[in-house]
Amino acid sequence: MNWIERDKQSIWHPFTPLLGVDDPLYIKSAEGVYLITEDGRKILDAVSSWWVNLHGHAHPAIAKAVAEQAASLEHVIFAGFTHKPAITLAENLLSILPDNQDKIFYSDNGSTAVEVALKMAFQYWFNKGDVRKKVIAIDGAYHGDTFGAMSVGERGDFTKPFNEHLFEVEFIDFPTPENESKVFEHFKNIIETEEVASFIFEPIVQGASGMRMYNEQFLDKLISYAQDHNILCIADEVMTGFGRIGKLFACDYISSNPDIFCLSKGLTGGAMALGVTSCTKEVIEAFTSQDLHKTFLHGHSFTANPIACAAAVASFELLTSPTCRVNLSRIEQKHKVFHAKIKGHPRIKDIRYKGTILALEFFTDKDSSYFSEMRNQLYPFFLKKNILLRPLGNLIYLIPPYIITDKELDKIYDAIEEFLAL
Ligand SMILES: *Cc1c(COP(=O)(O)O)cnc(C)c1O
């Protein structure tokens, strides 16, 4: 049996129907922006392997850090014990997060980083003797696939089988220039109930709902208002963090500082699973007690895994290097030029970019959702050209590793233009 047959006999893949789909591609290795198949085919990974890769695949500095860490301390329980990679990484992260961030809580993926944030916020109020059960979230949000994360996310086809098990959340409309004042009124009304524990949002760009971008000043206004009313603001930067939209964090574009940050995806440069939830001193103070009832009784087996932390420390060095800064603005500049070139094309409904992300929505006469049939045209079209673009319905987006060259970007833009010319 070959690898694909063996895969099909034993594996259930994520977000993938069990019938009627093409076989998975067997990837033997990866290097830089390329995924390499057994027969030597090189596929340009324009989606950074689900938005996680920053500096290219199998980066030697990250590989070395992982190998060295694995050979000296691969894992240790993180309750009652600590280690250098976790401490170094926490210090590094606090040095680039907004000044109000005081401590780092580790977990092992984006969904758990969000679960931790929500639980922290609920228990913050609980510990203060004020039970608050409402969370405010934004329509179309995606915060992960576990139950808490699903609860604060868009209720749609993805959550339908589970909706009755999700907790109550107040959703405000996705902000647009037309509805901002209405959304703000709604937001104020919800907060007036004095039952709100936290406000969670993907700052500036909503990823899974189609790289939807909204006004940063308006987000700033929502956060300031919420904080004036002591509501904890949770920035889910799982996707936007670590330079993805140009600055190190999306919240670097605004003047207010959220109370809690959720980080994952690019945290380790895309090499290892790791999640982080950071919070302010004020949150910490609500938990500062010898009383076990006020303790945050949450943890995962692989909390602060040393190998994952070592990968993150290595990635941090690359991220904060001048080379990386140059790459971030170079990619945005390239997107800008391509945007100017093809916006207004009759087949394009909308094209937008921010930092390293470029999203392009096509007109379709049919369903424009994730279930749009257009996906079945787009995905194979680009894959045949050895470009991995994973559409969301009638939308494609680029979210490349930061080391992608101008020439490689041009190859993707050219392929998009070819598709438009069909
Ligand atoms: C991907 C994502 C998550 C979930 O992260 P996982 O590691 O896939 O669990 C949460 N929030 C945002 C904004 C994301 O893009």
UniProtKB/TrEMBL annotation:
GO terms for biological process: biotin biosynthetic process. GO terms for cellular component: cytoplasm. The modification N6-(pyridoxal phosphate)lysine is found at residue 265. It holds the Pfam family Aminotran_3. Pyridoxal 5'-phosphate binds at residues 110-111, 236, 300-301. Its main location: cytoplasm. Homodimer. This is Adenosylmethionine-8-amino-7-oxononanoate aminotransferase. It comes from Fulvivirga sediminis.
